[in-house]
């Protein structure tokens, strides 16, 4: 295989270019498929835009061989396809940002990769991307919001849309950290309406604190081990 050096265009090199190329070569050598059927989803693994991911492959001379290993996604069930398409069409007609793919996945029981397949199939990428770009973020940029989202994105944070629970667990039981999450989280979530009685649950032995807020959890989006990166990119 002929290897090429990346062209020096003067633009800053993405820090994960080497990972993209190394993983692509491994898949080619082993003959194993890439994780997702969508170019965007595979690029998101590295926190890249699709164009940057493709350029990394092209300039390393492995693009064509890598594209052949992109799996074909099974089509979602007809009823769920119609439901999701109607949701997208309603958002486009109203000029409103659509829910995150993580939220739609939980609501309709379809994987994020299958929803991406449906978006690609119907040619809705541009319209949905523009709506998300123009929409105001649910949590307006601030030092508190950035810190709070950072804690949720870490290993100890989670947001369950099913239970309307925003949780942080600190295994080292750092009382200052738990107290800060309680204070900042309480402030941000209180702005989303009067919380239910018993909104805060604390367990000092485990260094755990939870907020129960339906509106707050939906504005944050789902944060679990498999969709944190997607939620951050799409909603925040």
Written overview of the protein:
- There is one protein chain.
- With 236 residues, this protein is of the alpha+beta class.
- It is 52% helix and 8% strand.
- It has twelve helices and four strands, in the order αααααααααββαββαα.
- The protein has helices spanning 17-30, 39-44, 50-59, 63-67, 78-94, 101-108, 112-122, 125-134, 143-153, 175-190, 214-220, 228-235; strands at 157-160, 165-169, 200-203, 208-212.
- Strand 3 and strand 4 form a beta hairpin.
- Helix 9 packs across helix 10.
- The chain starts with 16 loop residues before the first helix and ends with a helix.
- Residues 1-11 and 194-199 have low confidence and may be disordered.
Specify the number of helices: 12
Ends apart, CA distance between termini: 41 Å
- Counting helices, strands and paired strands, the structural category is alpha+beta
Q: Give the helix level as a range of percent.
A: 40-55%
Main sheet properties: 4 strands, antiparallel
The averaged pLDDT comes out at: 78
The oligomeric state of the chains shown is: single chain
User: Percent of residues in beta strands?
Assistant: 5-15%
Task: Order the strands across the largest sheet as they lie in space.
Answer: 1-2-4-3
Order of SSEs: HHHHHHHHHEEHEEHH
> What is the rounded Rg?
20 Å
Give the tally of β-strands.
4
Indicate the overall shape. Answer: globular
Which consecutive residue ranges, at least 5 long each, have pLDDT under 50?
A: 1-11, 194-199
């Amino acid at each position: 295989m002929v290897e090429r050096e990346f062209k020096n265009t003067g633009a800053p090199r993405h820090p994960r270019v080497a990972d993209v190329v190394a993983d692509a070569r491994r898949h080619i050598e082993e003959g194993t498929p890439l994780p997702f059927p969508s170019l965007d989803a595979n690029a998101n693994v590295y926190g890249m835009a699709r164009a940057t991911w493709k350029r990394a492959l092209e300039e390393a001379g492995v693009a064509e061989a890598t594209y052949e290993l992109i799996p074909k996604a099974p089509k979602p069930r007809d009823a769920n396809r119609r439901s999701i398409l109607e949701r997208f069409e309603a958002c486009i007609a109203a000029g409103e940002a659509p829910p995150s793919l993580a939220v739609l996945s939980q609501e309709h029981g379809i994987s994020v990769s299958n929803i991406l397949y449906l978006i690609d199939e119907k040619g809705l990428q541009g319209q949905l991307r523009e709506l998300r770009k123009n929409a105001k973020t649910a949590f307006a940029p601030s030092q508190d919001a950035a810190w709070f989202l950072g804690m949720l994105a870490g290993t100890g944070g989670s947001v369950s849309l099913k239970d309307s629970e925003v949780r942080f667990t600190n295994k080292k039981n750092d009382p200052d950290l738990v107290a800060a999450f309680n204070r900042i989280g309480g402030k941000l979530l209180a702005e989303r309406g009067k919380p239910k009685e018993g909104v805060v649950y604390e367990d000092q032995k485990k260094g755990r604190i939870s907020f129960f807020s339906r509106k707050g959890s939906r504005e944050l989006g789902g944060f679990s081990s498999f969709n944190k990166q997607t939620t951050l990119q799409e909603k925040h």
